[in-house]
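W.,

You were right to be curious about this one. When I first looked at the sequence I had no strong expectations either way, so I just let the prediction run and decided to look at it fresh. Below is the sequence, 42 residues in total, followed by the output.
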Amino acid sequence: MEYDLVYLRGDLLFWGARNIDGRGFDTEQNRPTNLQIPLVRK
């Protein structure tokens, strides 16, 4: 199981940014805290 971060704002979809050191999101402590560039929903 992985923990992730998803954020919707209007027509924009943001995913959690991957950790710089390559750690996965397998524990709550490793969850992403920053967002990637948004995807636009059409």
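Here's what jumped out at me. The beta strands are 6-9, 12-15, 39-40. And, maybe more interesting for your project: The chain has one domain: 6-40.

Coffee later to discuss?

I.
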